[in-house]
Design goal:
The complex is a heterodimer of chains A (607) and B (74). With 607 residues, chain A is α+β, with helices and mostly antiparallel strands. Chain A contains 27 helices and 17 strands. Helix content of chain B is 19%, strand content 28%. Chain B has helices at residues 9-15, 29-35, and strands at residues 3-7, 20-23, 45-48, 51-53, 64-68. Chain B is globular, with a radius of gyration of 11 Å. Classes of the chains: A alpha+beta (607), B alpha+beta (74). Bound molecules: iron/sulfur cluster. Iron/sulfur cluster binds at residues 73, 75, 95, 285-286, 289, 291-294, 489, 491 of chain A.
Chain lengths: 607, 74
Amino acid sequence: MNGYGGKILRVNLTDGTVSKDPTPADVARDFIGGRGFGIYFLLKEVPKGADPLGPENKLIISSGPISGMLIPGGGKCDWTTKAPLTGGYASASMGGHFTAEMRYAGLDSIILEGISPKPVYLFIDDDKIELRDASDLWGKSTFAVEKQFKEKLGEEFQVAVIGVGGENMVPYACINHDYGRQAGRGGVGAVMGSKKVKAIVLHGTKSIPVADKDAYRKAGMALYKACKDAEGLKEWTRYGTTIVVSWCDEVGALPTRNFSAGSFENGKNLYGPVMREKIVITDKGCFGCPCPCGKYSRNKKYDNYVEGPEYETIGLMGSNLGIDDIEAVAHANLLCDELGIDTISAGNAIGWAMECYEKGIFTKKDTDGLDLKFGNIEATFTLIEKIARREGFGALLAEGVKRASKKVGKGSEKFAIQVKGMEQSGYATHNATAMLLAYMTCDVGAHHNRSWAITYDLQVGREKVVPEKVARVIWLQNFRPMFDVLGGCRLQWVELGIDRDLYVPALEAITGVHRSWEDLDKVGERIWNLTRLYWARENEGFGRAWDMPSPRFYEEAPTSGATKGQITKFEDVNRLLDMYYEQRGWTSDGLPKPETIASLGLSAVVA
Amino acid sequence: MPATLRLGASLRILIGGQDEFTVEPGRSVRDTLVSLGIKPELVAMVSVKDEMQTKDYVIQEGDTVRLLAVVGGG
Ligand code: SF4
């Protein structure tokens, strides 16, 4: 099958066997790859009600047809599972060089099933596939393990590894790769830990069959040329995602002190140019990327090196905790990476705890003696360790803010900044109704990357609640995650602004199948509806209540910064949902109507 | 000597209109944008000689100031 490695690898951890199935042609036709394969296999193979950390759950790793190809950003793979953090759908994208090697080993997906009786790692060298003992690696940091494998096997082997957070099944544990890239959100690392898989180590040498080599070369070159000619290339490469810190601060989108505001009085100390000047020593990118957004830093203050921090970590571990020291943020980033926990959820959870402390809900008796005031850098470092190890007060925060605030009560639920149990990522949404809706309806919880609409809010009027905004959010939700289906990075389109139509001939040359963006958007819409159906299948009573944002965004206006005094009205939150459900073809409680399912050709998939 | 304000395609998508303005030096980028009727908050990045500047940057004689928006986000 052109454009595919051709095999799905199944690893049964319970009995230690591995097997390969041909990649089903009809699934490739209808779902293409990446997160399309992920939701298909999740729905079909993981039984209703499966414990996310039990043997019935599966961890499904999928590349897409542009992964490992000479297409800008073709270094992404998708990690889908039932999320321990939310009890719903998780799909985390990981960059680096893992997916290319996976494809060169002939694999479109790797599906981890069951639970191993002892710690193991999965070794793949083309057709040599083995589960090997990892007892001596258990407890080690992600970096130490990656380094050990690289030294032993060679640089060409790619490593995806969990840290102590994953071993301890922290529901927002991540999977690390390439010393600083992650499959970050929803707890994919906890699922890998529950299966007792410390690492996947792989290398391949096979070629990927391509339908039309000349056309592929031409289309690939056209994409690279567009990136090279892009007007923002120099700045993007110099600053990466930190390019937006100053802008978010200015427009009130920079999460500050547990999202109580969107501008930080000391934000300037965290801006991209400050970081570049103070700590960045070089740029680092994923496979085949012409515009490397990774910033590799030498942190003299803490005497270490780290990839990052990128925007989200600066927001959540910096301003959101009242920390204005970029070196401290970089160190917090490093600790999270070494221990294998998501910086976004961890920063959000620590921000919630700091607010509880400042409000007197926690005292030092609760916090293991930590003086958890906003801005306390040392306490932040200590808490990161405690969370990953589930030690003392850290064990509470390791639950995530939804569960932790439910346990603690005393009104702390109101400032637990999450949707569907996932901590909100780095954009404050006090008066940005399209972005608020994007978070409310995102298919994994409060994550920004499916639909990012703040500029659109500013363009049309941030408080406006109009059908055009809802349509924009839906269009982005259908279209942007298609990069996670194709196995590529969206940032070349997002940040460099290259024409998305350039991907169409590339995809056709690789797979031999012509798909316009209209066709691809339709695939995106089908996947979006399937993920919604998955949530409903797994959660009794799932509906509108699950889409509600934190009350912080409709009850409490910030008292400072660009959004001072601004808020979204509660009735507008509901109006947004009404319009959204209607435009999606869902019921007033947010469930896809039978006729919508039928019109998208999904009846057989969900039967 | 006047300076040049160059609007990147990402910004033109948002506001339409011309892509280049000749402006007088001595004022901040923010004030200059306001005087041209462009909402400063739509501009995410100000670049002068390939260095990122804030909108408080005071435009110098002969500068070419490049302005970009963030349309897509992370
Ligand atoms: S833009 Fe960043 S995330 Fe995307 S491929 Fe390049 S380095 Fe990777």
